[in-house]
Amino acid sequence: MTRRNDRPSIESVAAAAGVSPTTVSHALSGKRAVSAATRKRVMEAVEQQNYRPNMVARGLRSRRTQSVALLLVDIANPYYPALARAIHDVLAGEGYVSFIGNTDGDAATERRLLEEMVARGVDGVVMQPMALSAAQVREVVGPAMPLVITTDEYGDIPADSVLTDDTRGLGEAVDHLVRQGIRELGFVDGAPGTSTDAFRLQAFRAAVTAAGIEVPDRWIEHSPFDREGGAAATARLLAGPDRPRAVLCANDLIAIGAVQAAHAAGLRVPEDVAIVGFDDIETAALVSPRLTTVVNPAAAVGDACARTILWRVENGPDVPRKRTVLPTRLVVRQSA
Amino acid sequence: MTRRNDRPSIESVAAAAGVSPTTVSHALSGKRAVSAATRKRVMEAVEQQNYRPNMVARGLRSRRTQSVALLLVDIANPYYPALARAIHDVLAGEGYVSFIGNTDGDAATERRLLEEMVARGVDGVVMQPMALSAAQVREVVGPAMPLVITTDEYGDIPADSVLTDDTRGLGEAVDHLVRQGIRELGFVDGAPGTSTDAFRLQAFRAAVTAAGIEVPDRWIEHSPFDREGGAAATARLLAGPDRPRAVLCANDLIAIGAVQAAHAAGLRVPEDVAIVGFDDIETAALVSPRLTTVVNPAAAVGDACARTILWRVENGPDVPRKRTVLPTRLVVRQSA
DNA sequence: AACCGGACGCAAAACGTTTTGTATCCGCAA
DNA sequence: TTGCGGATACAAAACGTTTTGCGTCCGGTT
């Protein structure tokens, strides 16, 4: 009596090939030598029964699940899909499979999702922590878990990281504006308390300082990372009697809102106020005026994350930490 | 000597609580009665050791992994993130975790990813098959696997399904055009051979027939589901001496390309040629002219997929199949 | 007093692999 | 001839749970 609705097991393959399960395992994994003739018989049995090893059993015994967790703030945010896609592609190429989770930048959710992933025995975690510090993340995943994070922090980060050099692209943007004689710059940052935002604002400050420009605090606004927020924040920025001649934004959605706010205020873009975005999501090239923006190389970031996690899985926790920083650059279109 | 770097096991919890592992399991799962006093001791031990059950061991024994696979064509396509997000949200609320995979609409990839997921013991699969038929998908996942698919087929589908009533929204679009006296309609369909495309074209034909309109074959074009393809296909459509007065598109990216092609041909939108999209991705409301389009309720689809898969997991393979069809509707903006 | 059934807890098997220790065989060198 | 080492294969343990079959205890009924 065969078990109903069941996939072939290593045992059934072994029986068909006239060998022990051990030998099948070795024939498939190559961990120990198996004679060519035996291997051939095994492979035929595998083929004929269409055997695929049960990965959960394998995972239990070998402590490798061939899976990694991808924990993003919000997959629906237009920046992430390209990143997720790139990660998925290189992982899939190596036989890994991806879990995905949306944290919403909430500490409790970040923690819960991390625990859920650890409990499932993922081989590694790629995460964009917002509420938790890298150290806190490290604590919940344990000291040996391969971990790459995409947000920067001061000091030593107990994980591998892949980052973007936001200051560089923002510097190009500031230069671009200055060359047009524009020195009155505003900035609409993301919501405070998130970690990206602090660093993007900091990058702006660095870029601006490098250009020898002073930006008054009243020209720095905060907004959620979406269009509505960007419109509202920009409206505030433009309401005062001395308004900036250009506003740089922490992401493209905010920038698109900024353009709308400028239009609503009867201002022309870029003639009256120049707007520059950040990320270069697909929409940026499609809105009107087409958005001048700093390109954040999402696919390259994803690619680097995936390669880094695989490298760490391969090499274990003791090899020194890797920190990858990818350049950003300005793409000039119409809005500035 | 404790094992190095190891999480607490059910055994260590049992020891701390002074009971057997069996009792801990029952205390946690509630499968058998445990006295209040014992349960309390167990819970305290769990708390104190911060015990989380190893899901891969649990999965091996119980054959439930609390995970589902989400197999989409391409997460980077702007329509999918909202869908993925909705699915993720309801699943996460029930303690499930999501695998994600991009099939690219390729038969071999669809098959490989499905097998990979099955091997990992997912509790269910939500998939948008493009190259494989539902029957083929069913065959690789086995007869008992909960399966919901989001593409329609003729005849009986061996899976639960959640679909959109594309004909309805397209009908609204046709009516909208007819009311403006426009009866010369073109259609830019997706790439032939994919399953969505066939059904969207069919929906267009149904809508058009219902309105008593005849559409000549030369006004029907095919294109990949992206902007470049849409522009090229529309250029072909508008090149002839008798061009349609309106072109409906199989998705918004194609429609955005169509607008560009119209502009490139020196035509005004919508005065010379009206353009209507499909999906209502976020970009649709941001391009210029703002796109009139059929809204495809991605979040609602995702929500329904997730609820359906959970329902099926709950109820087993024997309860009758469920088929959910969600309405689509026209949103009128500027392009038509 | 004997019986019964429910509540409670434990031991052992099972899930499907990988891993490790060991046995056998064979050829070749001493 | 003996001894030895490599090649090959197998048996058994292990991974960390859930599940199942029993046993014991207890209170209430006959």
TrEMBL record, chains A, B:
<keyword id="KW-0805">Transcription regulation</keyword>
<dbReference type="InterPro" id="IPR046335">
    <property type="entry name" value="LacI/GalR-like_sensor"/>
</dbReference>
<dbReference type="Pfam" id="PF13377">
    <property type="entry name" value="Peripla_BP_3"/>
</dbReference>
<dbReference type="GO" id="GO:0003700">
    <property type="term" value="F:DNA-binding transcription factor activity"/>
</dbReference>
<dbReference type="GO" id="GO:0000976">
    <property type="term" value="F:transcription cis-regulatory region binding"/>
</dbReference>
<dbReference type="InterPro" id="IPR000843">
    <property type="entry name" value="HTH_LacI"/>
</dbReference>
<keyword id="KW-0804">Transcription</keyword>
<protein>
    <submittedName>
        <fullName>LacI family transcriptional regulator</fullName>
    </submittedName>
</protein>
<dbReference type="InterPro" id="IPR028082">
    <property type="entry name" value="Peripla_BP_I"/>
</dbReference>
<keyword id="KW-0238">DNA-binding</keyword>
<dbReference type="Pfam" id="PF00356">
    <property type="entry name" value="LacI"/>
</dbReference>
<feature type="domain" description="HTH lacI-type">
    <location>
        <begin position="8"/>
        <end position="62"/>
    </location>
</feature>
<dbReference type="InterPro" id="IPR010982">
    <property type="entry name" value="Lambda_DNA-bd_dom_sf"/>
</dbReference>
